[in-house]
Structures are given as structure tokens and as C-alpha cells.
Please model this.
Amino acid sequence: MPVFFGQEYGHFIVCKIFNPQKISDRKQRQHRQRRIIVKNITTIKRFVSNLTCTLLAITGLLVLSAPASHAASGAFTFSASTYLVVEGAGKVNITINRVGGSTGAATVGFRTGLISAVNDQDYVGMPLSTLSFASGVTQKVVSVGIIDDKVIEPTETFKVLLSAPTGGATLGSITSAIITLRDNDTIAVDATAPTVSLTSPASGVALLSAQPLTMAASAADNVGVSKVEFYAGATLIGSDSTAPYSFAWAVTSANNGSHSLTAKAYDATGNSKVSAAVAVTINLPVPDVTAPTVSLTSPASGATYTSAQTVTVAVAAADSVAVTKVELYDGTTLKETDSAAPYSFAWAITSANNGSHSLTAKAYDAAGNSKVSSAIPVTVNIAVAKPGSFEFAVGAHTVSENGGYVDVTIDRVGGSDGQVSVDFRTALGTAVNGEDYVGVSQKSLIFVNGETWKTERVGIVNDSVQESEESFKVILSTPTAGATLGAVTESILSILDDDAATPAPPVVNGPVKAFPGAEGFGTDTPAGRGGKIVKVTNLNDSGAGSLREALYNTTGKRIVVFEVAGIINLTSPLVIREPYVTIAGQTAPAPGITLSGYGMRIYTHDVLLQHLFFRGNTTLVDQDCISIQPSGTDRPYNVVVDHCSTAWAYDENISIFPGYTDQTDQNITVSNSLVGEGHYGVLIGSNATRVSFLRNVVLSTVERQPRLGGATYAHVVNNLLYNVGAYEFSAVGSTYGPDQVSYAGNSFVAGPSSRTSVPGLGTSSIQTGSKIYVPVSGAHANTSSYNITSSGITSYMVGTPPVSLDGITITPVTSLQATLATSAGARPAERGTTYGDSVDERFISEILTRSGSVKNRVQPAWSDKPIASTRDIDPLLPANPNGDDNGNGYTNIEEVLYRMALQVEGK
Model:
């Protein structure tokens, strides 16, 4: 379509029409760059709505004519395009003219606009407001407020604008005017220079050693000091812009000479002042910059070494002042440092140093100067040592159980140069350390230069238990001095059993004993027979898996077995209140269970206690290792203590003290036990009836080996009683009533702590009607180092046992010591092995050597304590524990306990 370009002429807008298709591309581009000059788009829009057009076809002009009423309303314009006002004038007057007509009322918009002046800081801005002109009014004046601040600032501007005329009026030629604000504030000129003086150093100072020279200045100004510069002569050497003003001049010998020091102070306007000069002298020592001289004097250049040795490397070094140290280098590696002449180094060489070496020395002086010597080439060519490898000669060994030991050969192969070592130890398999073999925890085997093999002997335990083939391992580890491990680092050692099957207990006719072979009163007890199996799995005083937990929180018939060994440190006595319990210490792995500190109190009935160690504490007042006594309405009876070891109780090691007459039969047996060291040995208290004290060893107590109170009914058979400290070994009697006691086959043996002519049996307040059987000859003979009895008991002696000895096996007294030395105590079979109890071993040794002493409430040293160990007991337990597969009256679990007891007893 055609486009037009136009210009307003008076009351007409003349537009020229172009047809794009009829003009060239060049002219088309020119016309497209033109723009319609329209001073007010609003006016154009208003014109267009009222236009009448005349087309001048020939000239190509389109003339748009406007109605005559538009020109009569006039146009609004500022009187000037710029205004100038001084900041202190208070206001500026702006004139708006209505030109070209004033017919009719009209309005126009007026407002201020931002340029560089700030509204409400430099002038009072006006938002868009309407100025009304009545018909015939042609001029109005608007005042804009000017703010007179006190800030010195440059000339600033803002603008005023006209817009949106009404009443047929239009906008004229000046619709925007610039207002220029001129500042009226003046700057006060500071012409006063600061004051300044040097306060340090003092005039005439001489600096003779290397140190910073501190320059300090005092400066002040009526307005403010901006900085202080410090000068040496005319040379600026430092400045400080913060009081107190100072500068540390790092002087060196290069500054030696006389100096005139000044300070120059400045204020913010550039005024400055120079202080009076201060004269100083600098005379520092001139530094040493000469490096030392250094050379290697040994070894000779090109030396070759073919054997391991220590080579002396000697160095000659000198300096104009002094050499402080010399370093030896092998290539770039620092080997050693020497700080005292003559300078030398011991260079130990081995085959590991084989190759070419370049030796140099580096010398230093105190000033840090250094010099590296010329290099000396040397060669090391030493035959490589072959320390060899360690391995077992064979990977498996077989030995019969009665062989006593097996020799294991360790070979050193592939070389035997130098002294080396390797670690040797045993490791668990199906065989049990301490029960089947003597374990080796860790042993270092040393091979000297040239040694190529060693034999290590491992002990084999010959037990009496029939068992299947078992095995364990020996292991090599941790070779030293360059040796390595070879191909066979583990070897299996198989043990072939040589024992006949342990016979099952015979078929019982009559009451079944607590365990096969049990003798004495109360051994008819079933104890825990037929009950649940309770495992002790840790050595804690209490809590899950502890012995206390098994005794306190398990009711009904029960058999307590152990998967651990070692010491249980008790913080209070273990009390048994629930009846029908078997505590089978023989089930623990070597070295068994030891109760330390407090002991055990049995307040109930039908209890079997076997194969436990008790180690008391002589500071715990009134405490026994084992105490069998009533508590409240509870009465102990049918109690068997067999193969236990006790020591170090504050009171009795073992006490049986009924204390009441309302119970006729206690039925209590203590047998095969080892009672040693303590204030008292064993007390069988008054009113104790049907008590058996059989095949026990009691030694080194003050008295009571044993002591029987009044109204007791007991037999004391085959006991070895040693080294009592009081007036007799055993005493009978009290005011409670007559006693009936049978002594048979006992041996009373005096020791280092025994009195001269101490009798075996004495009395205290024995009552009329007492009957004491204590023969000195025949099958039941008792023997003593001195007299068997004291004179006070003679009249109560009888020729036949008042308490029957039927069913009691009596060993001839002549062989009693040898028998009990190998059978009494908690685990006699382990004595003399790695796991043997050191206390029991000492007791037996003292009896055999007639040594030892009574330790009256004195806690002996206990250094060689039992070590802890564990094992899984499940594979040893029968599938049907409470069944009786062979019909002999004993349950399957009791037969396992019997066999395990035989093993720790060595039978």
C-alpha cells in the first residue's frame, strides 16, 4: 500500500505519497530511513479524526485540512528551555505560556523530574499536577522550592515537564526545561602545617650490632595528621599513617656511616612540616660471605668393596671464620652429619648397597655459607647373603598318646647366611591344650650362621580317657633378618589314643550314688540328676552367662557346666538356696574354675559340688571358702563336696555348722579335697550328725584339722593332716553333748610350724558318754609324728567304731601320702603341666619336702594365677542328657561328667 511522509504547515498537514512499486530500490531504502516529523502524537491522533483530505494527483501531495476550532485553543510552552538559580534563592519561578490562541478553558499537566539534583535534598519535587487556564488567560507562573543545604557540592540539575493538554489545546515547542542549581557553600582553607619532632633515636646514638633501628615521631595538627614520613638524609625510608608514629629501619652493614634522620608530617590539605634532624652513626660488622673449603680425603677415588664392612669416610674442611658442620652425601641422599673436627663418617655397607656411589661432602660456616666437595666415585660389589626360608620338614606328624612327646623338625632352606630367627607356636585343633598336649604359646627359634635345621619338642599328655584320634597344629611365623617363610608353615600333629574305654558305672543295686564311686553320708543324693543343663559362659561376677546367674535365677533340678576357665572375682558370697543342683567344675577346660575373694554358702539340700578351686581373702572378716549352714528356715542336708581345693579364708576354709537341734541327720561328705593355708582348716560344728570327712589333705593352718564340736556323729577316714600350728591336729568335744566319732587310717604329720610332741587328737570340754574310735594298729590304724591322742581323751576311747565304717574304702596309712599327693584337690591330673594350679602344686611340694609355714590371716603372694580359656562344650554333651541308654541307673549326662572327672583326677 502507499506510505506517506508529511509536515505540519499552519493548520494543514501536507503528506507526500509514494508507491513502493514505482521507485527504485535505492530510493526505497532512502525513504524508509526517513521519519514522520510529528511534534505531538496526541495532536496527530486528534487531527486524524477530523481530517478532510485533498488529493493532488499530479503533484503526489495529500493535503489534510484541520478544523478552524483547534488553532483558537492555543498551545502550551515554557517561556525558556533553561533556568539558572542559586542554592540560597529559596525558589525558582517557571513561566508557562499559552500561545497561538486562548479561546476556551484549557489545562496542561506539570511535574518535576530527576537529573543530578536529589529530590527533597536539593529541591522540593512536584508530582504531576494540573494547571488550569481560563479562556483568554495566556500565562501562568509555577514556583519550585530550592533547598539551601550546607554541603559543598558541584552544580546540579533537575527538569520540569508539560504534558496532556485538554480543551483543544496542544503542546508547544518547549515542553521540557532544565533547572540548574549553583552551590552557594564555601570551603574553609586550612593553611596551618603540623608540628613534628623525632623522639627516637636519641641524637648521637651509635648502632654497633645488627638490629632494627626504631624511629619514633611525635606529630600534631589543628585538624589532623594524615601521615608521617621518615627520612635518612633525603631518602624516604618508611612512613606511618597511624599514631603513635614509628618505623623500624632494618639496617645492615651496607648502611654503615653517619646519618641525619628526620620526620616529615602531613595533614589532610597537604600542609607538611619537617622535624629537626637527629644524627646517628651505624657501624655494623661486615658479614662473612666466604664459603668454606672442603674435600674428601678417604676413601680413594674409584675404590671397590667386595665384603660387608664399615668404610671410614674422611673430610678436610676449613673456613676463614669457622666450620660449623660437614654433611656426607651419597648422590643426593644425606647420610650423616658431623659437627666436630676431624670430620669423618662410618659408612656401613652390605650387599643392599651394591652398585655405584658418588660421595660428596658439604661444609657450612656460621654465616650459612656452604661448599660441596668434588665427588669421589666408589663401587660396592658384595655377594648377596642368603638367609634362607623356614618350613617344617613334614606337613603331618602322628604320635601315640603314651609317646610323651613329638619332635618337630624345622628346616632352613635356600640359604643359611647370618643369624636369623622364626617364631614357633602350637594352635588348637580337636585336641585340647593342657589335656591332650602341652601347648607352646610363642617361642623364638634362633638359627646361627650356617645352621640349617632345628628340632622342637612338644609334650603329649597321656590321659586315661578313651577318645578318638585328636589333632592340633604347629605354626611358623615372623622370620627375621631377611629370612622368609617356606612352603610348609603349618604341620598337623595327630594323637592316637591308647586308652581302653572308660567303663560305664556298674548297674546300681539300691540307691544311685551322687557319682560313681562316691562314699560317705549324703552321697545317695540325686543332686541335679534329671534337671536342665545350665552353661556358664563367662568369668563375670554376675549377669547373663555367669555362675551367679546360674545359681540365683535358675530353679528346679539343674546341672551347671562350664565353657570357660580362669578366675571369677566375687564381690559377694555365692549363695545356693535352690536345692537339687550339681556344679560340675570338671567340665571347664584347663586350668579349671577358681573362685577368688568371697566364697560359697550352701543353705539348702541335695547339692553336689565338684572340681572347683577357692582362693579366699584374709582381709574379709568371718568369710569361709565353703560354708554349709542353715539360713532362716532353710536347713542344709544331703550335701557332697568332692575334689575341691581351698585356701586363705579369714575363718574356716570349710565349715559344716548345723547350729540347730531340730534336724537329726545332715548327711554331709567332704572328700578328696585339698585344704591349705588359712586361720582354720575345717569345722564340723556341734549337733552335726552323719558327717563324713574322707581322703582329704589339710595343711599349714593354725588349728582345726578338723575340729568336731559336741554332739557330733561322724567318721574321719584316710586324711593327711600336716603342719598344724596349735596344740593338736584335730579336737573333739563341747558342752552340747557327747560325741561319737570314728577315726581310721589318718596320718598326723608335724611340720615346721608344729609344736614339739603335738598330739594327733585332743579334746575340749568333751562330754560324758562320748565314744571316740582312734586305733593305732590294724587295718584302721592312725599314725602320728608324736602321740596319737592327748591324755584328756583316753578315757573316751573305744575299741569298735561307734560310727560304722561299712562301705568306706580305707587305704593303708603307709601309702596314704603317696595316694593323696596325686589324687586330692580340684584337678590333680594337671599338676606339673602348663595348666597346673601353682598353689596346689606348692602345697603338695611342701608336704613332700616337709616345708611350708602357717600363715595366720596373712595373704600370700599369688603371682602365677590361672589363665583364662574357653571351649565349646556342646560336642561333649550327649544328645539325650537325661536318658539312661545303658540302663545302669546313671543318666547319660552323669556318665559324661564321670568320665570328665576321671580325666582331671588322672584316673
Helices lie at 25-32, 41-48, 68-73, 547-552, 816-823, 838-849, 892-905.
